[in-house]
Amino acid sequence: MVTPGAGSKMQIQSYKHNGQLHRIWENSTVLKATETIVIGANDRTQVTESDGRTWVTREPAICYFHAKHWFNIIGMLRDDGIHYYCNISSPFVYDDEALKYIDYDLDVKVYPDMTYDLLDEDEYEDHRQKMNYPVVLDRILHNNIEYLLRWVRQRKGPFAPDFIDGWYERYLTYR
């Protein structure tokens, strides 16, 4: 698999199960890329929604993508600490165009004190029925929610102390 080079810019593209483009983040800086992990960063980057509307992110963020896990993690650096937004999604793929994944609606929001909320269960259920998610996919996604929550409780991966701050320091060297 092709991997982006550290320091290069990449676009991030999110799709839905039916193949429709969902959202695009422009100009994320690649901090680390292997065949299994991509860590990127952005700050005040433009995001384009599927309907063409655009908005700009409000704070620096470190993005963690894995080629084997069915989730990705965004650590946002805010004044009151690091807030995490975790998308339950397909593992990523990367080609010369962008880093790509399928967003499966379910999200986990993790607060600086490591408490969390599971979000968008109604949206997931609606899309599961409309797009005919196979039973095996539903099981994979729910198993990965549990796996992700173990990472949160164990402070593993991006939830480890200093993970986000350390990668943010690296990001600042590319600015």
UniProtKB/TrEMBL annotation:
Mg(2+) 1 binds at residues 87, 103, 107. Its cofactor is Mg(2+). GO terms for molecular function: magnesium ion binding; nucleoside diphosphate phosphatase activity; ribonucleoside triphosphate phosphatase activity. It comes from the Bacteria. InterPro entries: DUF402, FomD-like_sf, Ntdp-like, SA1684. The keyword Metal-binding applies. The active site is at 23 (proton donor). It catalyses: a ribonucleoside 5'-diphosphate + H2O = a ribonucleoside 5'-phosphate + phosphate + H(+); a ribonucleoside 5'-triphosphate + H2O = a ribonucleoside 5'-diphosphate + phosphate + H(+). Residues 18-156 form the DUF402 domain. Its EC number is 3.6.1.15, 3.6.1.6. Mg(2+) 2 binds at residues 105, 107, 120, 123. Keywords: Hydrolase, Magnesium, Metal-binding. Belongs to the Ntdp family. Has nucleoside phosphatase activity towards nucleoside triphosphates and nucleoside diphosphates. This is Nucleoside triphosphate/diphosphate phosphatase. The lineage of its organism: Bacteria, Bacillati, Bacillota, Bacilli, Bacillales.
